[in-house]
Amino acid sequence: MSTLLLSNIAVRYTGQPRPAVEGASLSVAHGEFVVLTGRSGCGKSTLLNVAAGLVLPERGEVSVDGRLIEGPGADRAVVFQSDALFPWFSARDNVAFALRLRGIGERQRHVLANELLKRVRLEGLGDKPVWEMSGGMRQRVGLARALAAEPDFLLMDEPLGALDALTRERMQTLLLDIWAPGNLGVLMVTHGIEEALLLGTRVVVMAPDPGRIAHTFEAGFSRRYAAGEPVRSIKADRAFAAARAELADAIFEGEPA
Amino acid sequence: MTLLHAERGLRDLAEPERSTARLPRRETPRRELSSRAISAITILVALLAWTVVTRLGLVAPLFLPPPQDVLAKFWKVMSQGFVDATLLQHLLASLGRVFAALVAATLVGIPVGLAIGTSRIGRGIFDPVLEFLRPIPPLAYLPLVIIWFGIGEQAKVLVIAIAMVAPIALSTASGVRNVQQDRLSAARSLGATRRQVIRFVVLPSALPSILTGLRIALGAGWTTLVAAELVAATRGLGFMIQSAAQFLVTDVVVMGIFVIAAVAFVLEFGLRRLERRLVPWAGRE
């Protein structure tokens, strides 16, 4: 059971008058699905990049079980909105690349990569060039690649942001299925209010100018999914609608109507 | 079912919108010539003018031989040769030099471009060198190359290679600098070392740009050919043209120019095919 801890993070980009993030603290434990949400420019992606070690904070520190983080690492795999796949590799080789970095031999890479593709429901599509794939398929390859690193934490920066509504719903259940076994801590950035509620065990709302954490909600809907309740029945629940309204209020708080 | 049909109908409406979105638009639809057709007509008109001018005797054959003479010379040099070598032998000699130079320039240019694109020190060292070399015409440094390296084959290859290094290095550097930041981040967060990032992400990312650089370099090298074959060559298209000029065999000069142009065209075409094979993803994302 490890815990990823961000304490009192401040980030200021050069040339920007206000800090992108100011005094943000956050923890993600194994088995948790933490969702960062908020209006544009509230610093949620910046905070995720700090957790990934891709942005170094001006103040504050990031640690995993007390071990200080000073750069990116395979224990915190990242899924990007742009998918960041390597078009010169096939789908399988994109996944196998992460396995290769772990020092796994060629033959085993092939087998493991196929298994991972199966896990993200892309069975039999390993030879397909990624530039011929749809956005949803590419995002799944990116997910399989991140999982190939066998991370403790999965960090996702608006992974479903560029997908159409139907693909998005399918991907949400896929993400829940990946998370449900409980051997991963997930930190995800999203603009989607419903998505945040459905997926998150905790929903963290950030506010802009300067980017800071404004509210934190404990949400139990993804636990209900993990316990076997279908997504449709969860979304039809009155409690879901009420929580949705409450979350929307928190996100748009202080904004002129 | 009806819903599907409705959607289909909407798409059909949308379709012609997209296909006529060309600028500028004409009020009345009229058959227009493609620019390819206009190019073909231009070439035909030039050939016709050339034939008429020479047929009417308006220009002496010494200055402009008629097209059929040039064509006849082409066959004659193909079979019997000119200045002790057939056209094919001249061509192969020139191609051999250009490709040897391409290999040398690639071996130098890609690492230099990589250094410029990835490191502050590399950029500091190589940028001024390239900026110095790039604008110098080959004829200007030819004498120095001969003084240093003699009049052998390697000097000729070197003259061509110098002209090729800058385009290859600069294209590589620009390709390296334009690598998507997210791809670098992805590789780093998967645990790739700096060396692995360069090998598996930076170089393949830059490959489309590198191939464009090779294409430009090949053009530049081919342009330098005549200069390289100015001194102490016994074979080569450039050498053939110069010898012909000395004996005022104008039809061989004209024929040589056409052969050089045709080969350049074929090389360009071949490299574009190679690009499509090697980097099919380029420009499709």
UniProtKB/TrEMBL annotation, chain A:
Q: Give the matching Gene3D superfamilies.
A: P-loop containing nucleotide triphosphate hydrolases (3.40.50.300)
Q: Where is the ABC transporter domain?
A: 4-233
Pfam families in the cross-refs:
ABC_tran
Xref: PANTHER family: TAURINE IMPORT ATP-BINDING PROTEIN TAUB (PTHR42788:SF18), TAURINE IMPORT ATP-BINDING PROTEIN-RELATED (PTHR42788)
Q: What is the lineage of its organism?
A: Bacteria, Pseudomonadati, Pseudomonadota, Alphaproteobacteria, Hyphomicrobiales
Q: Which UniProt keywords apply?
A: ATP-binding, Cell inner membrane, Cell membrane, Membrane, Nucleotide-binding, Translocase, Transport
What InterPro entries does this protein map onto? AAA+_ATPase, ABC_transporter-like_ATP-bd, ABC_transporter-like_CS, ABC_transporter_ATP-bind, P-loop_NTPase
Homology family:
Belongs to the ABC transporter superfamily.
* GO molecular-function terms, A-Z: ATP binding; ATP hydrolysis activity
Record-given protein name: ATP-binding cassette domain-containing protein
Automatic annotation (TrEMBL), chain B:
**Name of the protein in its database record:** Taurine ABC transporter permease TauC
Q: What does this protein do?
A: Probably part of an ABC transporter complex. Probably responsible for the translocation of the substrate across the membrane.
Q: NCBIfam families from the xrefs? A: PRK10160.1
Organism the protein comes from: Aminobacter anthyllidis
Residues that span the membrane, as ranges: 40-64, 98-117, 129-151, 157-176, 197-225, 245-267
Task: Give the matching SUPFAM superfamilies.
Answer: MetI-like
Subcellular location(s) per record? Cell membrane
- Entry membrane topology: Multi-pass membrane protein
UniProt keywords (A-Z) are: Cell membrane, Membrane, Transmembrane, Transmembrane helix, Transport
